[in-house]
Fold:
Amino acid sequence: MYLLYTVIASLSFFLVLKWMKRRRYFTELKRLDGKTVLITGGNSGTGKETAVALATRGARVIIACRDPEKAEKAVREIKVQSRSFNVFHMELDLANLRSVSEFCKTFLHKEKSLHILVNNAGMPGILDWTDDGFSTCFGVNHLGHFLLTNLLLPRLKECAPSRVITLTCSSYKYQKLDFQDLNCNLLPFFTYCRSKLANIYFSQELARITEGKGVTSYAADPGFVQSGWTCHYSFLFRMVMQVIMWMFSVPCEIGAQTVVYCAVSDEAAKLSGGYFVDCQPATLRPFARDAGVAKKLWEASERLVKLA
Structure:
């Protein structure tokens, strides 16, 4: 009898886990032939799976990351999985604003079109600093992408209709921005939460600024995915998180579905400035829908990255 109860309890546990991890799969087969896509951090995780999905649809895909060796390996794997040779990489370090500026100059010189920009690369909350003196999490997750998008925005407008997808996370709801200390260095988790909230405000303000100009903007939440973010932490922490991720997270391929939805779907095209979860629009907390805060963050970010 004890064995029977154990089996029933185990089955119930795994069924609950499966139910918690259920996610939609984007099945629309819209082609992207002739379109150019740029994905930051496209060498691993959700970014890599997004690259595979968009290359499979015929897009010219460029992944941007700071490690050339990892990028070359990822490009080979993406080509095999997507059965496309139209995949390339460029070097970009989002923790260095000079690198971002140089990258944009090179990209605009080499690439004559840009139709989809996926601001995917991200850092977990770690107590570290960028080359420009910003906390790494806020500097990479928000400021690096802020400068990148602004410098590439003229090309996006030229190639309209075009889209900008910025990855965020549901953890945004646990923190609010402090404009007296935007470059915060709080507890790592809180720093991460603020950077993800900044991603949402950025996406909303970008949608407002580009309204009627052929560029649409989306904040995409891939959910809790089995990515490699734990590599920045201790061995013990990684082991514990591997167990937790095995139980509660979803594969990166599934997490990428919402990003692909925002990049491809005709439905999403009508909802610029929206927040998307599980391949559908979702409701944000009221404080994350404050247009005044979004505008204030945009102006503050312009000053921080010295964008004229």
